[in-house]
Design a protein that fits this description.
- By secondary structure, the chain is of the alpha+beta class.
- It contains two helices and nine strands; from the N terminus they run αββββββαβββ.
- Strand 4 and strand 5 form a beta hairpin.
- The relative contact order is 0.19.
Length: 138
């Protein structure tokens, strides 16, 4: 067996295992839009709605309660990691500013996604309860 074949065989096996029947599949996110309903066990302020959209593979955007944000993400099966987020810097009411800070902090610590019909749960490091979103666009 050549050196290349010896290396390629385990890699090929690992890649094809993802496509085997019964293997978990990646969460379909591209083109979807979500509205935050619960921020780790805390509700969200009416009129200061936070959103999360996946406009294309590897890109994320949304409203963080008062400001808009954008950035990148990686997804492997149900594991998600958001990259550095950028955004606008409009002045917000203190209570909205606090919600926005908690939301952006949680997005930065996202670890795992579950999609159940029109609901998406985002499990976050350090939070006992996941963020709960409802789908607004398939």
């Amino acid at each position: 067996m050549s050196r290349l074949s010896w290396f390629a065989a385990p890699v090929l096996l690992a890649l094809t295992a993802c496509a085997l029947p019964g293997a978990p599949s990646a969460v379909p996110l591209v083109g979807s839009e979500w509205r935050l309903e619960d921020l780790g066990g805390r509700g969200v302020i009416n009129g200061a709605q936070a959103t999360l959209t996946f406009p294309e593979a590897g890109r994320v955007a949304g409203n963080s309660s008062c400001n808009r944000f954008f950035g990148s993400y990686t997804l492997m099966q149900d594991r998600i990691a958001l990259g550095q987020l950028g955004g606008t810097r409009m002045a917000c009411a203190p209570v909205v500013d606090e919600q926005e800070g908690r939301y952006l902090d949680a997005l930065g610590k996202a670890q795992r996604l579950e999609v159940r019909g029109t609901t998406m749960l985002m499990h976050v490091q350090g939070l006992e309860k996941p963020l709960r979103f409802v789908r607004t666009k398939p």
